[in-house]
Amino acid sequence: MRWPVALFLALVLVAQTAAASVRLKDLVEFDGVRGNDLLGYGLVVGLDGTGDGIRNAPFTEDIMANILERLGVNVTGEQFRPRNVAAVVVTATLPPFARAGGRIDVTVSAIGDASSLLGGTLVMTPLNGADGQIYAVAQGAVLAGGVAAEGAAARVVQGVPTSGSIPLGGRVEREVEFELASLSRVRLALRNPDFTTAARIEEVVNRHYGRPIARMLDSGTVALDMAATRAASPAHALSQIENLTVSPQTRARVVIDQRSGTIVMGEDVRISRVAVAQGGLTLRVTEEPMVVQPNPFADGQTVVVPRTDVEIEDQPAVGMAELAASTSLTDIVAGLNALGVAPREMIDILNSINAAGALHAELIVR
Q: What is the rounded distance in angstroms from the CA atom of residue 70 to the CA atom of residue 78?
């Protein structure tokens, strides 16, 4: 069987992870403890002739004029033709409990026809939240993630030079009000909702405190009674709860990536007894035109005579291979290996087994 080594490693990792104990902080999100997306529109200056063409990006001229006027420079009626500036969109995430004066990372992306932001500097840009309020201000040197070079007849681009980042380039100016200490009830939201996992979280938390603290509301939510924890504050209680370990339960899945030919199976995948035959027929038609010349001193013409070669190749099949009703991932892998096919062909086999109703797992095709 010609399976890639990476595929076997992926199968082993999936099987081991499914049975491992995982901390609650890696399984759930605490209700209310979340980040907020920020967005701004700014200008990058100091580029080495790789900025926006003003004729193709007139909005760059508008923002540049606004910045200069705020600095006391009158540019009314003037014509700008620089190639060292670029209009950009600035994005960032305001983390939970961020305080005024704190620093955050920002991402800068060109929106005009600039070819590179390498070496540029972002001019002070306000970052707005979904409510339109300014929560941070970004400024600093842009670290572009690529390079571009071009000549008269060729151009080479490595990475994405029109996008970059500014580590700690944003300063928090406004805090998001959230009083964690005043909460009497906190909900845990499972990243992958599952009734079994939620019930196990409830059991682990209650066993840790020796009294009913947690209560499962549904497959994706577990409620915590903060007062019953008798901790100094909800923050103290959550610091203990988030480090408790649980063995999560996941749905049986088979994930297929058609672009790379990768197949990943979960440990709980099962199949019913099924027989599979796999083979192929290849028809190859090739054209090799032949040029025919007339005899010397003859009254004739040079013509092209078509020549067609048709070849039929019947690939050897494995016949009818039986896959027994499997009770483990090892049995399934061994049964599929018996077919002796490549991963690309294995994708078609798994699709056919699923269509026959013999694959007892969620089939995800990317």
A: 16
Residues 6+ apart with CB under 8 A from 28: 188, 189, 190, 191, 201, 222
Alpha carbons 32 and 181: distance in angstroms, whole number: 12
Mean pLDDT of 161-186: 87
- At residue 312, the pLDDT reads 56
Weakest-pLDDT range from 77-81, 198-202, 236-240, 275-279: 77-81
- The CA-based angle 167-170-171, given to 5 degrees, is 130
Give the Cα-Cα-Cα angle 144, 149, 150 (nearest 5 degrees): 145
Whose CA is closest to 126, among 43, 202, 45, 55? Answer: 43
* CA 258 to each of CA 14, 179, 366: distance values in angstroms, whole numbers, following the listed order: 19, 47, 6
Both structure tokens of 186: 């906190």
Amino acid at 41: Y
* CA nearest neighbour of 175 among 58, 277, 111, 94: 94
Residue in the structure block whose two tokens are 């890639």: 4
Flag whether pLDDT at 146 surpasses 80. no
Those residues with Cβ within 8 angstroms of residue 42's Cβ, 6 or more apart along the chain or in another chain = 63, 87, 88, 90, 108, 122, 123, 124, 125, 138
Q: Are 170 and 95 within 8 A, CB to CB?
A: no
